[in-house]
Structures are given as C-alpha cells and as structure tokens.
Amino acid sequence: MNIEEKKALVTRFAKIEGHVRSIKNMTEEERDLETIMQQIAAVKKAMDAAAKLIYTEQMKDLIKQGETDETVIKKKIDSFIR
C-alpha cells in the first residue's frame, strides 16, 4: 500500500470513528431507534468499503510478488473472508 492509499484509509477510519462516536451519543440521548439503525447501517457500509480496499491492496501485493502458489493465495483469501 503506498503512502497516499494508506493516508486515505486512515482518513476513512477516522471518519468511521467519528460516526460511531455520534451513534454512541445518539444512543445516550435516547434518539429515535430508526435513525440510530440507519447510522449503524452506514457505518457497516463504510467498514465494508474499507475492508474491500485492504483486500484489494493485499491481492495487488500478491500479484506484484508473482505469487502463483494456489494454497498461499487461498489462505490469503480465506483470511479476509472470515
């Protein structure tokens, strides 16, 4: 992962962190549960996008390394799917 991609990922996690803090505050304030659930869904989507980015970078690294051993590739894929 290059520096720009890492910076973008760290920024993405900071935004997610802020969003989770907001959900916590909404819960403490006993805000509308539907709104809270919508915000939780948004955080899940953001986390999925971050995971996809990390997964993509891992696969790029395997390709760059010329990895051809199917067992190694399968283990990497399986570790991300869990």
Q: Topology of this structure?
A:
Layout: H1 3-28, H2 33-64, H3 70-81
Helix pairs in contact: 1-2, 2-3
GO molecular function: DNA binding; metal ion binding
Protein name: Metal-sensitive transcriptional regulator
Distance between the termini: 22 Å
> Could you say which structural class the secondary elements and strand pairing correspond to?
mainly alpha
- Compute the number of structural domains: 1
What is the helix fraction of residues, given as a range?
A: over 70%
Give the CATH H-level superfamily.
Metal-sensitive repressor, helix protomer
Number of strands: 0
Major sheet summary line: none
The radius of gyration is 17 Å
Estimate the global geometry from the Cα principal axes: elongated
H-E order: HHH
> Briefly, what CATH class?
Mainly Alpha
Which range does the strand content fall in? under 5%
Organism: Listeria swaminathanii
GO molecular function: DNA binding; metal ion binding
InterPro entries: Metal_Tscrpt_repr (IPR003735), Metal_Tscrpt_repr_sf (IPR038390)
Protein name: Metal-sensitive transcriptional regulator
Throw out a few tags for this protein.
mainly alpha, 82 residues
Protein described:
The chain is an all-alpha fold and 82 residues long. The protein has one domain (3-81): Metal-sensitive repressor, helix protomer (Methane Monooxygenase Hydroxylase, Chain G, domain 1, Up-down Bundle), CATH 1.20.58.1000. The protein is built from 3 helices and no strands. The radius of gyration is 17 Å and the shape is elongated. The model has no long low-confidence stretch (mean pLDDT 88).
